[in-house]
Batch of 2 targets.
Target 1
Amino acid sequence: MKYERLERAVVDQNLAAMSEWKLGADGISISKSFKFRNFVEAFSFMTEAALAAEKFDHHPEWFNVYSRVDVTLSTHDAGGLTEQDFRLAKAMDKAATRRAS
Amino acid sequence: MKYERLERAVVDQNLAAMSEWKLGADGISISKSFKFRNFVEAFSFMTEAALAAEKFDHHPEWFNVYSRVDVTLSTHDAGGLTEQDFRLAKAMDKAATRRAS
């Protein structure tokens, strides 16, 4: 399924309803830095997020060092942000909440 | 257990015996980019590497996008490279070999 690039107003609306996700300087990606208690919690979060990513067939760019996971989401095929990005972002927030420090 | 920073000659010797690991420009880290068939194989590699990292109590800095995993290893407490870095690097190479494309 092909997802359409979202209008900027819809992107802003989505971001306003979420916590700590920021629009990239390029305007075509969103990012968030997740912090956990330790590596096990961080990687456990990544595992839950990876299952969601594979299910949605939409994958993150992410960096991990010990208890921190920096995530960037974008839909390259659409040249910007789509519903897929916000769907994965919300799944990640949910996974992070379960491991809240 | 405290690991001692390795002499440069020992670092070079270790690197010479390994495949594709490169010494960072800073001289205190080693890096390698792993490539897999898809996200599932890449994340499966990361999972095996995460278990080794936790077992060794020595964790990577790593970036993943789809089928690629870029890894950087260093021992911050020692201000450079220690046996721990090469131990984890070898475990990662072994994990990657099992998923060779």
Target 2
Amino acid sequence: MLRTTAFFRSARAPPKRLVKYTINHTTRTYSTVPLKLPDKESTLAKFDFPLATHTINDVTKALKSLLKNKDQKITLNGHINRKPRIRATMSFAEIRDAHGDTSQIVMAPGLTDQKFFDLLKSTTTEDSVSVSGHLQLKQNKEGETDRQWELVVENYQILNSSNLDAARLDKLKHASPEELPPQFRYLQLRTPYFQNALKTRSRIAQLIRNIFVENHGFTEIETPLLFKSTPEGAREFLVPTRSPEKFYALPQSPQQYKQILMSSGFTRYFQIAKCFRDEDLRSDRQPEFTQVDLEMSYINSSDQVGIVVEDLIHSVWNKIRKVPTYKVNEEGYLEAIAFDTSAPNEKLHFSKLSYTEALTKYGIDKPDLRSKLQFIDLSKFLVPSKSNNGEFPILEACVLKAAFDPAASKKYKVPHNLVDPLNYTRRRPIVIPIHSKDDANAWYNKFIEKGVFSPTAEFNEDEFHRSLNLKEGDILAFSTRAELPYENPTPLGKFRQLAIQEFPTKWNREIINKETGEISQQSKREDIFVGTWVVDFPLFNPIETTAESSDDFPTYDYTSFESTHHPFTMAKLEDYDLLETDPLKVRGEHYDLVVNGVEVGGGSRRIHDACLQKYIFEKVLRITNYNDLFGHLLHALSMGCPPHAGLALGFDRLCAMLIGSPSIRDVIAFPKNQSGADPVVDSPTAVSEKTLNQYFITTKI
Amino acid sequence: MLRTTAFFRSARAPPKRLVKYTINHTTRTYSTVPLKLPDKESTLAKFDFPLATHTINDVTKALKSLLKNKDQKITLNGHINRKPRIRATMSFAEIRDAHGDTSQIVMAPGLTDQKFFDLLKSTTTEDSVSVSGHLQLKQNKEGETDRQWELVVENYQILNSSNLDAARLDKLKHASPEELPPQFRYLQLRTPYFQNALKTRSRIAQLIRNIFVENHGFTEIETPLLFKSTPEGAREFLVPTRSPEKFYALPQSPQQYKQILMSSGFTRYFQIAKCFRDEDLRSDRQPEFTQVDLEMSYINSSDQVGIVVEDLIHSVWNKIRKVPTYKVNEEGYLEAIAFDTSAPNEKLHFSKLSYTEALTKYGIDKPDLRSKLQFIDLSKFLVPSKSNNGEFPILEACVLKAAFDPAASKKYKVPHNLVDPLNYTRRRPIVIPIHSKDDANAWYNKFIEKGVFSPTAEFNEDEFHRSLNLKEGDILAFSTRAELPYENPTPLGKFRQLAIQEFPTKWNREIINKETGEISQQSKREDIFVGTWVVDFPLFNPIETTAESSDDFPTYDYTSFESTHHPFTMAKLEDYDLLETDPLKVRGEHYDLVVNGVEVGGGSRRIHDACLQKYIFEKVLRITNYNDLFGHLLHALSMGCPPHAGLALGFDRLCAMLIGSPSIRDVIAFPKNQSGADPVVDSPTAVSEKTLNQYFITTKI
């Protein structure tokens, strides 16, 4: 005998009750009626069923030959894709197989046993079923057969039933991520978009591993996840142990272990590694994330790392995304990279951009180079009145050419997004639409009068106009920056990002065909991926001291330093002496790989000389307890560790870019939400006092 | 100017000071003298050096053509393999490259600059160096050239120095794992044995992934490591969060997430996954370990999982270990498995062994089938006097045929290992050497007299003798067991394991050549790998209630049950009704893969029917809070989750077997020690009060 409860039903239980779910699992209610063993026949039928003979696509491809053989029995297994149509004579349903393909199944009197009609009545969307029968061509409205096939049911089994009504399920399946009650992630994952997203991620990982191993002789080595707390960077997750007062920490990256591996004689290490950061979760950060991590020893230039990384990057774009990668050539055009996926790379294809050039041209260290927008230094002509004691002396401008039609409206207002204070960390650029010739010629007088800036001694009106070349319909933005900005992005850099978002089709770089010299516009912008190496970062930053409340200039303590990336990065050899005399002038052997304004990866040559590493800890960074924190690394370096360099790629972000999604959540099966919770399993949870006692900890509020 | 400190030296600092290390990192002392920036020239030389033109093996292979070109300059980079020999005229050193090959380098007056001679004097074992020069053939003692080459040094650079004297380093490098101060793991990892171990592990992972993806269409999906505490199995590591009283737990396996993935429409999932268990560490367990995890949906038999798993197993043995796998055929011979690595498998090759057969023949659920030792049931003849109220009524024997030479010594004593109480959990078998015909014929009388056992009514002396067939030189062991033993291994099962260890060359199964019928002995025992599927486990065990102090029979509460493996395993369909009437009689759809007595993997068909799963939780296992613990899984199952089954392989153990090591530590770069500490980085550590406050926890002792 069959029991139904509020929550669980067996396949045959008629009729279905609509169960309401709330988002929080803990409010689910279950029956408290004592359960009996579920009905034997219907339960065992869920385990005892024929294997699929074909996928739906198999059938479509071999349709002709399959139709010839009248005795050919076909079994399809999958989910019911939408509510079956029950008719007095024929009934219809749609089955979706594991590849996301769908096909019609039909129950026909005489051909299909009556019991299967009854079973179909109790079937609803997203039930898992097994269907066997023979193929026939569908008839169109005029009664003619067409090329499409359907399966006439001879056997029908419900392998498991979904427990919601079809209408609600249909809505849930196609809900946007924001609308979907998040514990229903598994319904969403069944849709073709997410199936493709995670399968593509798997293919990317596989391709990357094959390139590492087969093209470059790398060894994949797993490093521990129960690591040591080295509280220098982001906040780390702790793991209590059953030794009183002793904790592991989950690693932010395998950085230290991979350097120890270099001292262990491995010359080419990689790992697709889980990493952890307990940071406040922005919309697109996850507390656990995946990193493609590599390190190479006995190399004397970062280019050797870059060549391997470019092999990965060009290959995944060519083979997975099936579009070329682009670089910016010397004339500022985009040039498709001619990359031979069959042969290992021997040189860098992307060009290099120095930190200083990136900040002065684009106001950020990860510029989106699809756009040709860049800044004009006005400091020859104008001096800002407010420069925070001369720390921000450069006045720079960005012109959005022909942003609007000056004839169309006299009242054109700059899009709010470009000037919204919420989009800026601190001060904003001043943004002016150029409505008229007057505006173009005399816009600055007003600001001189108001005392925003004043002309320099060399101010020359003609030269000034030539440098800006303003026309009606342009939008002008200007702001201040430091000579070498630590502010990153600068106010104008942020403005540039917002302008690219706001006007995605404007000011894009043209594409040059290297063979023919032909120049064309970007046609499908979503298929354009422009990469660059950003190099020559300052090795150290002054420590920022800006007050929380400040909405003006950031302030710095120029006598205390922190590593721009991490303390293990080597200085550029030509800047070596500056480590002693002027650390802020030292450039690091760090390199970032930036694609379309996203930092895809970053790496560096490392300090393998323990004596120099110790100097950096003690004298530059003034880390007093470096022996406790990093003694293990110094020890490993001091034992004949060879020179080495490496890089890490953000794997989640890379996968998201490749499937064309702005969100890494789309390529993670079970992402955490913004409170760090997993709504599917309802973690984190409270833990019993007894368990905590084993770890010698207690909670407090 | 160059500074040396107690700990860190630059390459040129003469002469080296021997620094003593203690095992505990925290006792290392560093100089407190203020540091200056290390000497520029020698430090930068460590970063600016020529790349290797060849590996040593490259040179050996291309020696003839390389020698022809007199101008050919060769650069080798690597470690100095042992202390250089400094002579008044010529000096010699040995360089080891990253592949573990070694070559002699020679400094010759006239050819090598004097400064390099001086540099070689300050060189010691395990310094990292770059050497350039030209090739010549070595001269043997008679002054004749032989086929071996050496490199005449024209440029020599120390890329990093090791900071211990050569003698100590040599000793450390070749120390056994027990002797090596464990923070020197990186020296050990440089040796060819460990280089091979970790490179082989990487190759195995790569091969396994390729088989999953290319042969079987699996998708690799990463599941979260920040999971939820579900305190049903082993002790879990907790991860405090910045929400008061909320904890993640690190997963013991991806079991629940992978079942949710089955409900998410993925039909073939795999992952090489990190798992965590906070258990008391036996010699060969690690708190973090790696598992090859797979799950398949829409399958109706565990064989479909087994076929994929056998593809992995036969392939890694064939391609990595380069030996065949064996099964036990029906006559009890070993038969090499004919496996075509180029084509996916279509059937199971290993045979199946039921739990009952395994326990009654071999006394354990993971028998080492290389040995043909098996047990003789004596219950037809003898009844034990002590049977714990009839719970252990079976008297069984194991005979070690011709274990000793009865003529050689009248005083032969059974090896202590076989009878050492420390080797047994509770009661031990009685073990008797058969010294004489008398012993063979009348050994049991003594035990009948002593009341150890008594003859049955059907006791027939001839039949009894035939069944045991004892001869002088045999060792007889006998003990008791239950009808269906939950004791696993049984006392005699443990005895069998010890006997195999003690007499590795005896009682091994013969190998049959399937083509010719020829029968041969096992020749290289370390190359024989015998696999079997163990099936038909009881789905539930009675909960053990044995008192800690007991050294006799284990006791059970036969009215309360626990899952033999985990609560998600399906019952055998034919035992379905027993779930209600007699749960202990239910056999599970669980299958273990056992190779040479090691459980390589285990898996099952799962319960995909939420109603049945709930019944098992509530009625059989009496888990009252199953909604809190497993509500997420019930929810996922109830949403049309298809039938599914899977398996997990212990990857560390698999790799250790394949490199022929008894210890998983040999295939883990940085294993934890038996206290759960990582001596290389000195984790776990204390954490500041400030950090703990962020997680709303405090420590207590």
